[in-house]
Amino acid sequence: GIPVVLMEAMASGLSVVASALSGIPELVESGRTGLLVAPGDVTALADALQILGEDRELRYRLGQAGREKVLRNFNLRRSALELLKLFLREQSSDGCAPLSEDLAEAGTLR
What we know:
Elements: H1 4-11, E1 17-19, H2 24-27, E2 35-37, H3 42-54, H4 56-73, H5 76-92, H6 99-105
Parallel strand pairs: 1-2
């Protein structure tokens, strides 16, 4: 998965350095929305932190690009709608009554 703390930092406009593990590269595009280093590579981690520490413009640019990406692609409303689409697509092929009828009856859809 993607660590929530990483999304929160990026949503706050902070530049980030992370290891290329699990779903992190989906969120952090090295050189564009943050910096990625190989897992366990302490030298690369130290280098990335030094680069950010010395380059204010890079910190700002990565922080802004990361914030825009999180707000655009990882928000609750969008995620819920994508999940609903998956449920509706799966449900439409299972032969049961439409899920939308259940949601409307529950007062979820207006």
